[in-house]
Amino acid sequence: MRVIATCFKWLLLPVVAFTSGCTSSLERDDVLAYKVSHPLNLQQYYQSNWYRPDKHEIEEIRVIQPDGYLSRGVRLSVKDSDNTVFYLGGAPYRDQQDDADILGQLAFLGLNVVTFRQRGIDEHGYWPTLAQLKTDADTLYQSIKQRYEHEYLILHGAAMSTFWVAEIAAQQNREAGVQQALVVEAPVTTVNELAMDGDKWAWLREKQVAEDLASLDNYQTLAEFDGPLLVLIAGEDTQVPAELSARFFAAQRSWKKSVAVIENTDEHALLHSDDALAAYTQFVRKHGWENTPDTVN
Question: CA torsion 218→131→184→252, rounded to 10°?
């Protein structure tokens, strides 16, 4: 199995790892074992302890990308909810149980959720490029926006995926005049700052950051964004330093921004924190539509 040679080959593994927002270290062979054709198992959701047939509906969603790649995702519908989260955070090698747990947490808040498995290594052993990941995110967003046009859409990204969601939100703000609601977990400012501040990625300091990675700049992307923004930060995040995410929040000009720093919590437990869920609930009640169902006890 071969891996395509690109100018950022040294950074491909961390880039894909960051897209999940809560992925532990993996050996190269572990990552290569996964294929983009890996199917969704809807039974995983039906069998979750939070799933209630009288309140929840689960369906698979498929979206064809411009290059023919088939993006597979799942839609969780909560009865009487018109607030929908597009969660962009699942890396291709992420355990589907993680996705089911995240959907359960958001379902607890009475929110519909749509999430997709991100593009992984193809059948020829080629990694996705940054351009493909960006295009995928934008195509999925446009599809969801059109499909659920009568629902209030909340765009949610984690770690490196915050680059994609920030770009979409900024574009909507700039070109369509839409204040797209945006939630970011452990946002990254720039890859260069991550290399300098992140102890886990200290080895990046000794390598030249490729031009396309260096161009990922949330400072610049969100320079004029003034839509609703919630920043969730785990105080003990092992992937993205909390200080870096705090710097991201401080730089944003939106007067509709809010932040929740959850101390003594890492990236794995962030969305399982009562304080994080409380901040999410307050954000939706302030900026979403009024007919959000009561939370499930």
Answer: 20
**Helix (H), strand (E) counts: the chain:** 11, 8
Cα–Cα distance measured from residue 59 to residue 32, given in angstroms and rounded to the nearest whole number:
28
Distance CA 205, CA 146 (A): 42
pLDDT (tens digit per residue) in 3-37: 333 333 334 444 444 444 443 443 433 333 344 44
Bridging pattern class, strands 70-78 and 112-117: antiparallel
CA-to-CA dists, residue 48 to 3, 97, 274, angstroms: 36, 9, 19
The reply to whether the predicted model has a pTM over 0.85 is no
pLDDT per residue as tens digits for the range 218-246: 999 999 899 999 999 999 988 889 999 99
Question: Residue 242 and residue 234: Cα distance in Å, rounded?
Answer: 6
Q: Strands 83-90 and 112-117, how do they pair? A: parallel
